[in-house]
Write a sequence for this structure.
């Protein structure tokens, strides 16, 4: 618990106090009414008691607030053993003093009020103590739960932040090699084919914009994603030239289907990095999107395996990353599998 | 210098050869796009310097160096690769980040030219390998070394390979002792017995040994026993 609790929830706390001690007041009234006639003076006593208890519990709260953080359950219990009786005694002393004072001014009100005895004083005190104990248990339980929930939230927040940093780092790692190779290729192209160089720069701009925007969105239309992929492939063609061939086979009705940003791009990048880049004569990359039924569609990226697969094996981070983005967007409704062999197929099933 | 460019991207090769065109004193011996064709070409053309990309379709630049019969000077070129370059020890040669600027390339080339002139001053060139610089590329696991010949204190057979000792380190080289002997300068290196080659500059002292042999004590306190036949040759070599 921190100071913020009081500032953030004074209203909630106030309502809880009024409700708790109000109920106690009501209970007292109902109880006494059942036994005898409730005099106005008795009502005043009960109201005073509830008010005193409200104030005392507020004081207790300040104490709990201060010490509950650093004390174990046992320590708190031990302290409650003296704190609660003492508070109860104080409450009753003040109450009795008040009653005594009022009676001095208006003795007529004494009618129907039982005289004070040591036994009755102790009885009242025990009653008060039980109420304070009940209040304390509820309060401590609630703050303990709240504390746990907050710790948990903080933990998850930290985890999420960490993962975000991780992803950003990985993304920068994954793309930097490609980025600088592309810049280098475009640089050479400026002399060889200025028009193609201009196109290359435009593709690079589209792709960079996509990368920057992708962070903010959970999903994008397939149409948009394919634009990036085409730009990406055009740039990779500068690097691989005739070694990289590709074909698209896309069901037009799926162009508005949603995919996590850069999902297709990641799969295509993997196909090149771990497949085609590892073949001296390159190969054909196929990208397919087709409807499976009314609620599902399938995306496939197929490439021939590398000649020396060990050399071009990834660490699975790209794939794990893609799976995570799928899960964030579609929960368990989307899957992603990799089928290994002479040709490698990355296959994602997504909801329409 | 005779320079060879090895990069899988034609445009990247073109970019480098464009930059090199401004250096009239250097010539481009050839270009290759993968490890296999580069190996053949290196043997044919005997370049003095490789501009070598790390990622190639059928291996890495390190794989290529390991399979070369001799080790030319190397400048690595890479787009963005910290991991591969981290593998190098302090004796790493230069590397260039793509896109390469003319200034960086000139500086790297100059460094090698300076290095070569110094080599000629201090060491007698090996006659049969006039183009090869006096160093060898060794990779052991993740660590790579360019070991200068004059830093090698001794070479010892270990199974089918040899272990090379240099600068208080050692590394395994997947070659035969005869192969290594053929490449080392015979004026400095001496075959002490069937198992070992030693660098004469690293000898601490020599003592007579049983059966007309010699016990050679190296500066790192290892003791090497030379057979009678080899001992006779050593005595001849050490005589003035």
């Amino acid at each position: 618990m921190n100071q913020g609790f009081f500032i953030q929830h004074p209203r909630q706390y106030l309502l809880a106090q009024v409700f708790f001690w109000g109920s106690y007041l009501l209970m007292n009234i109902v109880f006494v009414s059942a036994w005898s006639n409730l005099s106005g003076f008795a009502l005043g006593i009960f109201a005073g008691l509830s008010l005193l208890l409200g104030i005392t519990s507020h004081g207790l709260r300040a104490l709990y607030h201060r010490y509950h953080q650093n004390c174990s359950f046992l320590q708190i219990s031990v302290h409650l053993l003296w704190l609660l009786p003492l508070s109860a005694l104080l409450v009753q002393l003040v109450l009795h003093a008040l009653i005594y004072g009022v009676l001095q001014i208006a003795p007529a009100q004494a009618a129907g009020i039982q005289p004070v005895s040591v036994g009755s004083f102790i009885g009242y005190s025990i009653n008060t103590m039980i109420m304070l104990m009940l209040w304390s248990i509820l309060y401590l339980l609630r703050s303990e739960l709240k504390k746990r929930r907050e710790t948990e939230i903080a933990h998850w927040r930290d985890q999420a932040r960490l993962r975000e940093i991780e992803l950003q780092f990985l993304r920068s790692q994954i793309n930097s090699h490609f980025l600088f190779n592309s810049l280098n290729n475009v640089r050479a192209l400026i002399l060889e084919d200025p028009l193609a160089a201009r196109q290359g720069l435009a593709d690079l701009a589209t792709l960079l914009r996509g990368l920057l925007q992708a962070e903010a969105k959970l999903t994008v239309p397939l149409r948009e994603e394919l634009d990036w992929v085409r730009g990406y492939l055009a740039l990779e063609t500068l690097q691989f030239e005739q070694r990289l061939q590709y074909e698209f086979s896309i069901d037009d009705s799926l162009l508005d289907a949603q995919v996590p940003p850069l999902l297709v791009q990641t799969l295509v990048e993997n196909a090149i990095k771990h497949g085609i880049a590892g073949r001296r004569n390159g190969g054909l990359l196929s990208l397919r999107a087709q409807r499976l039924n009314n609620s599902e569609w399938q995306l496939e990226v197929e490439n021939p395996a590398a000649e020396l697969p060990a050399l071009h094996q990834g660490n699975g981070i790209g794939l794990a990353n893609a799976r995570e983005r799928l899960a964030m967007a579609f929960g368990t409704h989307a899957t992603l599998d990799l089928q290994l062999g002479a040709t490698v197929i990355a296959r994602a099933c997504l909801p329409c | 210098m005779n320079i060879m460019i090895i990069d899988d991207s034609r445009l990247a090769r073109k970019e480098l050869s464009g930059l090199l065109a401004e250096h009239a004193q250097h010539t481009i011996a050839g270009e290759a796009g993968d490890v296999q064709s580069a190996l053949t070409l290196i043997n044919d053309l005997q370049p003095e310097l490789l501009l070598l990309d790390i990622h190639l379709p059928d291996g890495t630049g390190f794989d290529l160096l390991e399979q070369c019969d001799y080790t030319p000077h190397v400048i690595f070129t890479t787009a963005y690769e910290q991991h591969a370059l981290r593998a190098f020890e302090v004796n790493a040669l230069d590397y260039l980040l793509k896109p390469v600027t003319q200034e960086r390339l000139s500086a790297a080339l100059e460094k090698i030219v300076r290095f070569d002139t110094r080599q000629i001053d201090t060491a007698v060139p090996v006659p049969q390998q006039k183009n090869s610089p006096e160093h060898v590329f060794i990779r052991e696991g993740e660590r790579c070394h360019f070991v200068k010949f004059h830093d090698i204190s001794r070479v010892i057979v270990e199974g089918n390979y040899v272990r090379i000792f240099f600068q208080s380190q050692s590394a395994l080289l997947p070659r035969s002792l005869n192969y290594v002997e053929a490449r080392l300068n015979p004026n400095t290196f001496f075959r002490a017995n069937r198992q070992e080659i030693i660098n004469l500059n690293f000898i601490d002292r020599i003592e007579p040994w049983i059966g007309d042999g010699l016990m050679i004590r190296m500066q790192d306190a290892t003791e090497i026993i030379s057979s009678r036949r080899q001992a006779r040759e050593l005595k001849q070599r050490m005589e003035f």
